[in-house]
Amino acid sequence: MDRRPPATPLSFHHAVSVRLCAQLRRFAAAACLSLAAAAPSLAGAAPTPDAELADEWRRLRATPGHFDGAAWNADVDRWDGSKHRVMRELATRLVTRGASAGQALAQLGAPDRVVVGDESAAAPMRQALSHPCPDGRPPLEGDMLWLYRWRGYHDRLVLWLRDEYVAGCGWLHDWE
Questions:
Q1: Beta strand ranges found along 60-173 (DSSP E)
Q2: SS3 call for 77
Q3: 43-85: pLDDT as tens digits
Q4: Nearest-angstrom CA–CA distance, 143 and 145
Q5: How many CB atoms neighbour CB 171 within 10 A?
Q6: Residues 127-145, buried b or exposed e (16+ Cβ, 10 A)?
Q7: What is the four-CA torsion angle of 112, 120, 116, 147, rounded to 10 degrees?
Q8: Can you give the pTM of this predicted structure?
Q9: Which regions of 32-154 does DSSP assign to beta strands (E)?
Q10: Contacts of 142 (CB under 8 A, 6+ apart)
Q11: Are 93 and 50 in contact (CB under 8 A)?
């Protein structure tokens, strides 16, 4: 006897994807507004280690390197260079703390790509996750994956979000 659930029509998956993307846009807008509202109260505060790391990430993210068509830049292009280390540290902190999507946006900014877990492109990304979810479950089809470029589209950081919280992270490499 076949115990698999009946196939879900593609239109259902599309509707779920559209709904999740709309929720993400609303959530990102609300997070940006709340950060902007908090900015005046933070004006005189000493920077925290997380804020300094996030500032370094923003600086390095804006710096073009070899994989963006510019000259080789060891800080952004080299394995274990500054950009790689900063991304790895920020992602590890977000996973360890079980950070919310808003906290991830505040630290890393908007992702370069968002993949809803039921898209066919998500399968290899789910396999790349190096930090397991704290509850031990693997990524589910409804989870969201946020991709951040490290060396162009050659190598990317993947953040895995479940129920609007960072549940894991990993890397997609071309392994040339």
A1: 113-116, 144-151, 155-162, 165-172
A2: helix
A3: 445 556 789 999 999 999 999 999 999 999 999 999 999 999 9
A4: 7
A5: 17
A6: ebbebebeeeeebeeebbb
A7: -20
A8: 0.68
A9: 113-116, 144-151
A10: 16, 20, 116, 117, 118
A11: yes
Q: In the 8-state DSSP scheme, what is residue 142? A: T
The CA distance from 126 to 143, in Å, is 10
Is residue 82 within 8 A of residue 56, CB to CB? The reply is: yes
pLDDT given at position 13: 43
Q: Which residues, 6 or more positions from 28, have their beta carbon under 8 angstroms from its beta carbon?
A: 101, 105, 110
Are the C-beta atoms of residues 168 and 131 closer than 8 Å to each other? yes
pLDDT of 91 over the 90 cut:
yes
The answer to whether 130 and 169 have CB atoms below 8 angstroms apart is yes
What torsion do the CA atoms of 134, 135, 138, 139 make, to the nearest 10 degrees?
Answer: -70
| Residue type for position 26 | R
Q: For the packed helices 82-97 and 101-108, what is the interaxial angle rounded to 10 degrees?
A: 160
